[in-house]
Amino acid sequence: MPHRNRVTPFGDVIETEARGLLFGNRGVLHDDQGRIVRPFQGRRWIACRLEFKGRRRPLLRPGRFTELFFLDEATALAAGHRPCAECRREDFVRFRAAWETTHPGPWPGVDDVDRELHDQRVGPGRRKGVHPAAPDELPDGVMIAEGGAAWLVAGGSLLRWTPAGYEERRAAGTGTARVDVLTPRSIVAVIAAGYAPAMHPTAETRGP
Question: 208 Cβ partners below 8 Å, 6+ apart?
């Protein structure tokens, strides 16, 4: 039976049999019976490799961080997670370089980055924080919300997110129409500055 440990682009934690390409955490979300009882604990939301130095973790141990999984990095970033500075060091260095490009001044440190991201990813009532933009202003790898679904911006198209991969493809649209962007503003800027998030293989194979 699958655990409730998969993260959607909206930041929700759901139960699904579909497998993800990234692992991560945002603190202890479960109780002693393994039930998810809170959306997050603290501001350090990270996305990690599935395998690192042969480490193995039993899932949902009492008092330990809740092991979360993501379809791909675009999903993790949309939910508000950033690359882990340990197991994904090279990705973190690229993320940091893009962050410094978009945030003038000295590197503030990961605590300040996590604080800024937290202010953007969590809205009133602990609901998902979103911001408006025109689709043609957004770089590939960003996700938007429309019609109750999450859509990935990729190659001038929008791909509908599902737990198992991306499905239908449609034109992203142009003009002044605004959409709700799920990916936090600062991460959108980081992607626009050159940080290319890894996408699930279905983002390339899904046709019209």
Answer: 169, 170
Query: pLDDT tens-digit profile of 82-97?
Result: 999 999 999 999 999 9
| 67 close to 23: Cβ distance less than 8 angstroms | yes
Partners of residue 149 on adjacent β-strands: 146
The better pLDDT of the pair 57, 33 is held by 33
As a whole number, the mean pLDDT across the chain is: 92
pTM: 0.94
> What are the boundaries of each domain within the chain?
4-121, 130-205
Put residue 125 in one of left, alpha, beta given phi > 0 → left and psi -120 to 50 → alpha: left
Structure tokens at 125: 């009532």
